[in-house]
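Entry 14. Two folds queued back to back today. First construct below, sequence then structure tokens.
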Amino acid sequence: MGKKGKERARERREQRLQEISHLRTVPYSPHERWWSKETVAVVTGANRGIGYEIARQLAVHGLHVVLTSRDFDRALGATTNLQAEGLSVQPCQLDITDAGSVMSFASWIQLEHGGIDVLVNNAGVNFNRGADNSVEFAEIVIKTNYYGTKRMIETMLPLMRPSSFGARIVNVSSRLGRANGRRNKISDPTLRENLMKDETLSEELLDEMLTNFLSQVNYGAWQNGGWPQMYTDYSLSKLALNVYTRLTARRLAERLGTHRVYINCFCPGWVKTQMTNWEGNMSTEEGADTGVWMALLPVENISSGSFYAERREIDF
């Protein structure tokens, strides 16, 4: 893409963001508002950044939000700020990498609320900045971003309350995890094809891919493994999450009965947060927008197993 092409693309994107900014000011109609003050939304890793803003926007729309953080004091501080705005927000400690913590949280949710209606999996880590591409913390990144989120989904699915509108799971992901991205993709065409085809897609395939990568990291051979070249560990963790979202959507669609659960993922963009060292080009309000929009979509407009950015579906 030449200089003029990049300028046109930038202009189109800026125009799209302006449109979305306007849409955020348009109130939902009574027909569109399927939720009430009794609707319970859980947002993980919500003491700051995108998670905090997602929690805030959901609460502004009238949902009751359970705001979680690994550190209870930070969850309490964030909740206190939102409660000062008159919002219905409740703090809870939760570490998605700790099976005991997740089980304790699920038990508390059952006792406190009887279940939930919306789960936003925002908790995640990335230890690289700028042009860095270290894999020093690769195991932690994958343990958190993929396996921790997967643990949350599997544990909370039985607690998602049935309704005519369907429960919703929103996974905060990244375009860096696209299997067929133009500049940051897995170079092995067979692996890419197997990840994209329903008939070959499986959790075992994901486990094998991540195990191979971590093994190469341990042996110092990962740079020649054909993995994404930008934020490699983070990109692979989000690729696994994206693929797992599709796989879970397919399983949920096969359920009998009316207990519908919709699961999707989205890329918030390059947002000015601590994770990006405040170097992003979007505000947290802009970054949170698509996730909130997905969580609140009217049932006639919602899909499952899709990937979104800036309120539009994009390719995996």
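Second construct, same run, same settings:
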Amino acid sequence: MEVLRAVGTVLRGVSQIFFIDNVWSGALIVLAVGWVHPWIAVAVVLGALAQTLGAWALLGRESVRTGMMGYNGALVGAAAAAALNHPVPALLMAVVGALACVPVHGMLQRLFGSRTVGWAALPVATAPFCLVAGVLFDLVLPLVGSGTPTTGSGVPGVALGALNSFSEVVLADGAVPGALIVIALFVGGIRIGLFGLLGSLVALAGALLAGDGVVQASSGLLGYSAVLVSIALGAVVWNDRPLWARITGAVVGVALTMVLQPLLAVLPVPVYTWPFLLSMWLLMLVVAAVTRTRRAAGGTPRRTAVAPIP
């Protein structure tokens, strides 16, 4: 039973990449990355396991129960597999990076809980992954590209772009991994799945309207942060708001990711999920600031929901 519980905790950690607390969703995501190559799935699971064990040792069992201290490690594992050519060093760096995510997560939690920005209730989300992986695979190790993403043209290219937006979240590639992740999202919750699709389709439409072309849009590189921000704002952090407000927030968040993605790409660090993080934090800060202003002026604004994301 203890072994099954441990496996479930690790899989929940993998599922939390997409804000889901579901063992079966985690298993489908592992299957999706394993479709690209089995050892990539091993790196993702090992990363989630290492962060979970590190958090359990430092913070206790309750901190890892829902997988909240596993998803950044899983992403570090995916980044290690994408950045390194050989399984052994990649798995080694997955463990090192995942363990480093534990104290980084704690420091960011304290920062976001401080009086300076605590009023905005900003979630840590994937920031530990971005910071740790950015150091490990750009500053410490030479970044080795994982190859050109799969692309397509015409109607098949459009469909591929919608699915690649999901697979690229975990640094995977291809229609089958993307489809498996979409299924995982709907297993985790209808709302999660629908807002994930909304983010992917809005980003795809935006890329096509901006003249990027089907081939470029089909890579999914312009859509993976859009998927995350749409889920976060539409299905997680603002659940007490009306549907129209959540859809509006999701669409605005997607637009921001598409503006930030090319801007961040010129910096000498990996982009990873920074467009998602910065877009989500910016919108949450703005909404929280407006709420505070109305409250100070004697208004009765709607209470801002706090994300169940550490």
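Quick look at the second one. The mean pLDDT is 88. The chain has two domains: 2-140, 154-296.
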